[in-house]
Design goal:
The chain has 6 helices and 9 strands, in the order E-E-E-H-E-E-H-E-H-E-H-E-E-H-H. It is rod-shaped, with a radius of gyration of 36 Å. The chain is an alpha+beta fold and 237 residues long. Among the domains are: 64 residues, Translation initiation factor 3 (IF-3), N-terminal domain (Ubiquitin-like (UB roll)), CATH 3.10.20; 83 residues, 2-Layer Sandwich (Translation Initiation Factor IF3).
Length: 237
């Protein structure tokens, strides 16, 4: 049986670094770009859905959408490439990127970091130790931290798991003014854990009536004496 000659021509490099012909690079406008959006002539869809305030919303052929963007001296930005058809906006691209980065920074700033404080008990914790840890838990909840309290069972003390559950439920009950139970006591290995999350302080909103009464009291003029009251005052002197 004759052996077929092996192909000795140039091989495609491994790793799939390049883009196949006809395949769209969605992460940028060319293979070396790091832009998160595809814009203008790099959009490959035949038609797009235009949204925004500066256009009549609807589905347009790509050529017409590009023409509208060019007339406004702005960019056609593909913001939802997976939609059918893709969703685009007509905006200044650099300004659009700046607004997106600013919005992300604001969202990160608003996202509060959740701090969890742990408090450990034994299955037979005495009242002095319990009250000491209860005081710490009140402080943690007031500052906005979550409290993860657990009873650690060592050796044969696992026999007292019911006692540990009672302790944690008592702990949650004593803290009901400062936190609510997020997770009921759960036994995991040698630990029985309960999770408490802080209560947001209720802000009392004054009604328009109460606010008006306060302003009226603050601006109230001093009471003038009636003629009868003046006669009584003169007689007393």
């Amino acid at each position: 049986m004759e052996k077929k000659p092996q192909f000795s021509g140039p091989r495609r490099p491994m790793g799939g670094g390049g883009t196949r012909p006809g395949q769209r690079n969605r992460r940028g406008n060319d293979k070396n770009s790091r832009d998160p959006y595809v814009i203008n002539e790099h959009i490959r869809a035949r038609e797009v859905r235009l949204v925004g305030d500066n256009v009549e919303q609807g589905i347009y052929p790509l050529d017409k959408a590009l023409k509208i963007a060019a007339e406004q001296e702005l960019d056609l930005i593909e913001i939802s490439p997976n939609a059918e058809p893709p969703v685009c906006r007509i905006l200044d691209y650099q300004k659009f990127l700046y607004q997106q980065k600013k919005r992300q920074k604001e969202q990160k700033a608003k996202a509060a970091k959740v701090v969890v404080k742990e408090i450990r008990f034994g299955p037979q914790t005495d009242d002095h130790d319990y009250n000491f840890k209860l005081k710490h838990a009140v402080g943690f909840l007031k500052e906005g931290s979550k409290v993860k309290a657990y009873v650690f069972f060592r050796g044969r003390s696992i026999l007292f798991k019911e006692q540990g559950e009672v302790l944690l439920l008592r702990f949650a009950n004593d803290l009901e003014e400062y936190g609510k139970v997020e997770m009921m006591p759960v036994l995991e290995g040698k630990r029985m854990t309960i999770m408490l999350t802080p209560l947001k302080p209720a802000v009392k909103k004054e009604t328009p009536k109460e606010d008006g009464e306060k302003k009226a009291k603050g601006n109230k003029a001093p009471k003038e004496e009636t003629p009868k009251e003046a006669e009584k005052t003169d007689g007393a002197e």
